[in-house]
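Justification of resources, computational component.

The compute hours requested in this renewal are based largely on the per-chain cost of generating structure records like the one below. Each record pairs the submitted sequence with a full structure-token output. That output is archived, and it is also reused by downstream analysis tasks.
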Amino acid sequence: MSTLGTSILVCALLAFPASLSAAPPKSDVPGGPRVRPGDSRSASLLLEALERSTTIRSLVNRLESSDVIVYIQRQPSLRNRLAGSLTWISAAGGYRYVRVSWSPELSTSAAISTLGHELQHALEIASEGSIVSAETMEEFYRKTGISVRDHTGYDTLAARDRGDTVRREIAGVRSTRTTDSLQDVEHEAWLAMYRQARGLS
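The structure output for this chain reads:
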């Protein structure tokens, strides 16, 4: 079990990479897929997480019917030894955008459980229509969350429970994936792999 923590960071993300903020890609979901890896390692991690954890599959499938777009990105500069975080990006065009960051210091299993934790936070936001900005997100978590000591942010018991559940689920489930990277995968091929990992094809 990792000793790194996780947190909801309540600052707005002011300089998000342009490549990730481009027009949504085509998919079977209007507006494009809701969960979008921002780098090849995150894409590989997401597919493995979907393969090994029924909880992650459930979280992702529920997010896919929401108005929240979740970018997942490996983030070496996570401060104060955080395992992961969720950061508000913006609200535009009828969608709300957040970023899930995870530390490359984590083992694959720890990264998957961290992903489950942070996707639960994304679902909390999806379920709360009043969250439309960094300020309203902070207000929501100030009222409903747990202040994280030694970190600037908040957590929830539900997110901690999801992370623990995912950790138990994947303990005895080995991945069948043979690659650690998806650098050269075409977008349509990625969408097919994503659908298959979600149990849709």
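The CA atoms of residues 102 and 111 lie 7 Å apart. Strands lie at 5-12, 35-37, 68-74, 82-92, 95-102, 146-147, 154-155.
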